Amino acid sequence: MISQLISLYTFVIFVRIILSWFPNSSGGALSSVNRVLYQITEPVLGPARRIIPTIGPLDISPIVVVFALGFVQRMLASAGL
Known about the structure:
By secondary structure, this protein is mainly α. Helix 1 crosses helix 2 (29-51), helix 1 packs antiparallel against helix 3 and helix 2 (29-51) packs across helix 3. The chain has one domain. The protein contains 3 helices and no strands.
């Protein structure tokens, strides 16, 4: 179950990354989705962003978080959880 939650959270981070490539609409469903994704992912990405420096204009914290989640997921799987 924990592994599935990590997979879902990783997917949500990827969706946030992809939607960040498109300009925000001032209203509508896409704006609501962006708000929800921000609320779900920012508690993890915010602290990571403060620790991980940007590379020019690129924020690599989501990539680092996804790798870290994958590592945790593999550790849990090897522990049998």
